Amino acid sequence: MITVKPFCALRPAKELASQCAALPYDVMSSDEAREMVKGNPYSFLHIDKAEIDLDKNIDIYDERVYAKAAENLKKFEKDGVYVNDTEKKYYFYRQIMDGRAQTGIVGCASIDDYLENRIKKHEFTRADKEIDRIKHVDICSAHTGPIFLAYKESVALDAIISKQTEKAPIYDFTAEDGVRHTVWSTDGEETDKAIEQAFSALDALYIADGHHRAASAVKVGVKRRKENPTYDGTEEFNFFLSVIFPANSLKILDYNRLLKDLNGYSTQAFLKAVSEKVGAIEEYKGNGPCRPDKKHSFGMYLDGKWYLVRFHDALCNAKDPVDCLDCAILQKNLLSQILGIEDPRSDKRIDFAGGIRGLEYLEQRCNHDMKMAISMYPTSLEELMAVADSGAVMPPKSTWFEPKLRSGLLIHKI
């Protein structure tokens, strides 16, 4: 049984929503964020990356950064940039990118569901990134960035989303990257109860994106439980801000690889090793870069040429949900055995590029600072959920979700 609660959102004044909404804090550098906010004093980056309002040389983990974030949030509220809803409700958040729409329910998921693995993970988290967001959440006393969750199937929730998004939205704008963002709120207690009941009928939710934000929010909740030993479970710190989508509406993009060298192989020797140990190679005859057309295949750009590689059948028979992933097969049989890259998290000879950058970006990098690029076939939601159901984790850089959820549209105060 899953618990998702309505909440009183802190949200932008309607006329400022498009200026407030910002990309997640972790998809840009501090310098990029400084450029993004030029001419926009209302950008939520003033809260999510508050170092942009301090000396340029300050460490982004300095305590003053978190204090500045809390100060900026209070000022936005005091100045009327943000207003508090006075009644608890659910919200609906639709994004349209390249003609494809995805609509999720915004509510507060339970930290107990997370701790007891009813909210399922597929990724390891890093301690330093957790500590950063723990401090940010705790000092701001708010969840500023929503967690991107998915559910397998719910006719009831799908029907509610369809009906509630027929009415007038509270926000509707198109961001500078062309993605349209629309937000609605529920229309009364009856709808709220129906949503809560529909979630309670589910066995699990799945983290699509935002593992560090989720882990940090939960740890702040556990910390506050210890600080408030008489808590009864209804306090806001027992829940964390989430946008929860039907899985069948989501799209995972490719997450591609870039390699510095061939580990001492000549081009011909490398191609021979790949052909023998990894898969059948053919020179790609299509127009433009090679985008693999099905699972168990990948494109390879080397010395100005694209190749299509299809894994040998013997490599694709694993029953384990992790071992049968293309990125896992590639890591074991090509990156590790041929190129000697054992830990892609730390090896400086490999880099990664989310599919949003396009395959031409891979060519550009190979013409500049890399030797070879690999274009992947995207991991599916079904594969992600199978890994999460098994209690395992995905290999590094397995999934890239687009569009990204904007921060600063709906904030959950704890």
Q: What oligomeric assembly is this protein in?
A: single chain
Provide the number of structural domains.
2
In percent, how helical is the residue content? Answer: 25-40%
Number of helical stretches of at least 4 residues: 13
Main pleated-sheet profile: 9 strands, mixed
**Segments where pLDDT lies below 50 for 5+ residues?**
none
Structural commentary:
It is a single chain. This protein is α+β, with helices and mostly antiparallel strands and 414 residues long. The mean pLDDT is 95. It has helices spanning 17-20, 30-36, 45-48, 63-78, 111-115, 127-140, 155-164, 189-200, 211-227, 267-277, 326-336, 359-366, 381-390, and strands at 4-5, 10-12, 82-84, 91-97, 100-110, 119-120, 142-143, 147-151, 171-174, 180-185, 205-209, 239-246, 252-253, 255-259, 279-283, 297-302, 305-311, 350-354, 372-376, 400-401, 412-413. It is 31% helix and 23% strand. The chain has two domains: 4-251 and 402-413, no CATH class; 255-377, no CATH class. The chain has 13 helices and 21 strands.
Q: What secondary-structure arrangement, pairings included, does this model have?
A:
Elements lengths: L3 E2 L4 E3 L4 H4 L9 H7 L8 H4 L14 H16 L3 E3 L6 E7 L2 E11 H5 L3 E2 L6 H14 L1 E2 L3 E5 L3 H10 L6 E4 L5 E6 L3 H12 L4 E5 L1 H17 L11 E8 L5 E2 L1 E5 L7 H11 L1 E5 L13 E6 L2 E7 L14 H11 L13 E5 L4 H8 L5 E5 L4 H10 L9 E2 L10 E2 L1
Parallel strand pairs: 6-11, 8-12
Antiparallel strand pairs: 1-5, 2-3, 4-5, 4-10, 5-12, 7-21, 8-11, 9-10, 13-20, 14-18, 14-19, 15-17, 16-17, 16-19
Helix pairs in contact: 4-6, 6-9
